[in-house]
Design goal:
six-stranded mixed sheet; about 425 residues; about 45% helix; five-stranded parallel sheet; alpha/beta; Rossmann fold; globular
């Protein structure tokens, strides 16, 4: 299979001149190992080794005698799935400190919270941590995401693009992209439903059991399906608990496990007060639209477009593409959503220095003032808000209301 370059690749190569180790995190099967192998070969040629902590026997090689392990694997070294050996970080610190300005270790991991604890305690300042999500549409077309990020961080740049057209269609572009998702096995190899089913089983049987005790794996599997269907919404934990016949603490624990395994992203609410932000329900984004739709048994363009919650699924997919663009460019994704008590909302708020960029998403080819209510309300209440951005199927960048620019969804495809 031909290697497809990843957006974050250049910044990782640059980091190899400054850090003793690089840790690439993200969901299982997102392409982390493939990316680091490419970087290792580019930086070290053939003078490197790879070791994966994927089986009990592999893990035992390190745990049985760490000194002997590093004698047999002196580096440069690519270590895969390091979340399975959390005790390795003090040893890596020792090895890195022997040559702090020379990268000797490339690491991958697919469980966030437990792994970050080890990094924070042992490797602070010695390791660059980056996140790799499944492929974005720009990456699949071998195009950069810099113009997406710079345009969203400073919408005045989009004013210079007024009149430019970025057409796309549901049938040829949006729906197929959502159904395929971004996992390499689906986006490139197109292995089909059997691959998603295998991923589902592997995730439940390995990652979930490793992250924490789940007494009822069947109930957790139903929880996973429910979360896929709630992508792009503000999930009600009490309703989830009632539906699954579990308590609220269990729902909290299960959500934290999905987040730790990079299966969901939680976007907090913006209320203008840092103390109160966490008091509002976060918006949940299922990381990969293809996996999420498979879990819901949505397998065709017609089934997806006719789904009663299509608007939420489209919103979640676009928010995920925006997040991927920021990750590709190694930019911080300081993102929130905004919703008033009477239901007026903005799907995304980007916090940029002292300014706020409000963004709304509508599945319409003819956006109008009525589609801009949330943007207008947010800009009225926040003096530090920039131009509002409305993503729609309308192909041209143009003004659609005072202070509101239309951004074609096709812009995300390049």
């Amino acid at each position: 299979m031909k290697y497809i370059h990843r957006g974050v690749e250049a910044s990782l190569l640059q980091a190899m001149n400054r850090f003793g180790a690089i840790l690439l995190t993200g969901p299982r099967q997102a392409g982390k190992s493939t990316l680091l192998r490419h970087i290792a070969q580019k930086k070290w040629g053939t003078a490197w080794q790879e070791f994966s902590f994927d089986t009990p026997a592999d893990i035992a090689q390190f745990q049985g005698d760490p000194n002997l392990f590093f004698l047999n694997h002196p580096g440069p070294l690519l270590l895969d799935e390091v979340q399975n050996v959390p005790d390795i970080f003090p040893w890596l610190k020792k090895m890195v400190d022997q040559a702090p300005e020379q990268t000797r270790f490339l690491l991958t991991g697919s469980q966030h919270f437990p792994m970050m604890k080890g990094v924070a305690e042992s490797m602070a300042g010695r390791v660059l941590v980056a996140e790799l999500q499944p492929f974005s549409q720009r990456e699949l077309q071998n195009k950069g995401s810099d113009d997406i990020v710079t345009s969203l961080l400073d919408p005045k740049r989009l004013v210079k693009k007024i009149g430019r057209s970025f057409p796309c269609t549901d049938g040829n572009d949006v729906l197929p992209a959502m159904l395929a998702g971004g996992f390499p096995a689906q986006a490139i190899q197109k292995l089909g439903a059997s691959w998603f089913s295998s991923y589902r089983s592997t995730y439940l049987q390995r990652d979930i059991l490793a992250l924490g005790r789940v007494e009822n794996i069947g109930a957790f599997d139903r929880f996973l399906v429910l979360c896929a269907g709630l992508s792009g919404t503000l999930p009600n934990k009490a309703n989830l608990a009632d539906t699954l016949q579990v308590d609220a603490k269990t729902v909290d624990h299960w959500l934290s496990m999905l987040q730790a395994g990079y299966q969901i992203t939680l976007i907090p609410a913006w209320v203008g007060n840092t103390v109160k932000r966490i008091a509002k329900r976060p918006k949940m984004i299922f990381t990969d639209s293809g996996l999420g739709l498979h879990l819901q048994a949505v397998r065709s363009n017609d089934a997806l477009q006719n789904a009663p919650h299509f608007g939420n699924l489209l919103e979640a997919w676009i928010l995920s593409e925006i997040q991927k663009a920021f990750l590709c460019c190694s930019n911080e994704f300081d993102a929130y959503h905004w919703r008033t008590s009477n239901g007026v909302e903005c799907d995304l708020i980007l916090h940029v220095n002292n300014t706020l960029v409000p963004i709304e998403i509508k599945h319409t080819a003819k956006p109008s003032d009525s589609d801009c209510k949330g943007l207008i309300a947010f800009r009225r209440e926040h003096r530090n808000a920039t131009i509002g951005l409305l993503f729609s199927m309308h192909p041209k960048i143009e003004w659609i209301s005072t202070g509101i620019l239309n951004v074609p969804i096709g812009f995300l495809f390049g």
